[in-house]
Amino acid sequence: MLLINIGQLLTLHSSAVKQGPRRGADLKQLGILEDAAVLCIGGKIVSVGTTKDALRDPWIRKNRKQLAEIDCGGNVVIPGFVDSHTHPVFVSPRLVDFEKRIEGASYEEIAAAGGGIRSSLEGVRQAAMSKLTAKVLRVLQDMAAHGTTTVEAKSGYGLTLESELKSLEAIREASDGWAGTVVPTLLGAHVVPKEFQGCSQKYVEIVCKEMIPRAAKRNLAQFVDVFCDKGAFAPEETEQIFAAAKEDGLSVRAHMGQLSETALAPLLRFNPASFDHMDHVNNEDVKQLAKLDTITTLVPGANYFLGLKSYPDARRFIDAGVPVALATDYNPGTSPTISMPMAMSLACTQMKMSPAEAIAAATINGAWALRLADRKGSIEPGKDADLAVFDVEDYREVPYWYGVNHCRMTVLNGVIAASD
Ligand code: NIG
Ligand code: FE
Per CATH, the architecture of 2-80+377-419 is what? Predict the structure, then answer.
């Protein structure tokens, strides 16, 4: 495949930036090439350069007829988004919660009154796997139509051994039917289900002794996630679950600081890939994170949808040298959006990230958050052919035109998906 006449190609590759996840000023280095071309063969990027040089290249001239040629007509091409935090395995939207919140109830009040995560459990427990698979596949396709090519997908709305494994199997089946890349995460520790209220330790044991070993053995998950917060799991329980994950060879990540502040230091020995949400974090932890490769994943869609006035302090993290990523947090309770451009728009307007920072956070740092930066997140020879073509002239238009999809085409591991 040969893409030519790219107005701005955001390679996200620059020899001037430091190794590792992007931090501080490096987050703005987009490695822009104008009037560019990209050659992809066998699902990989083979070369990147100007259109003029590509069309003069002897190999390309000789083989041009066999290449699918895509004239980008001056459009912007960026690395496919890496949405590193999503919860796609659920059955129904939570419309009653939506209305209650509009009338003034908070996320925690709604959960205490029987809404929230617990109200999504019955649907998943009863659903046939094929129904869940179809739902997840539809979401993946919608995401691709908006420029996303890699998705982290969590279980977490079944919360029994059987329904968590069923959710992970649905993720696997759906990803088999999708050209992009899916990273599965076991979120058995999403909330303590009603049956275990008052004896959360018993439930934690099921997570540690049944869910994690079974998911690991069947290769159904790469990560284990925990919702560590008031009303969910305590820091000690989180440590216990992380220890079980490590024992079975799975990497860890956690929802931290969404509703209240929890010290991060005790969890660092598990080398978490990311801490997500991070609305409430202390200064010591910020300093510590600046020295590590653990990514702080910001999900402003959740703050927006919950109608909160405050957003995570992205500038504080970036200015301190903490590597940040952006993700949708797609889920029925706090962030029912599949759109990375929407998350980026919120990052710009509500968290004061620049469009350039938002792009890097949604691509290369998302790849770091999933430990896939060797294959994903930038456009350079050797990496997977994951690209998104936006029908705009300037990359800053991607977060600018909120609420409308300007993604014209996505390339997922070398396979083309048109958006319209
Ligand atoms: O990331 N915070 C925990 N999990 C989700 C919310 C899930 C839900 O409300 O269904 C989140 O915001
Ligand atoms: Fe989440």
Answer: Roll (2.30)
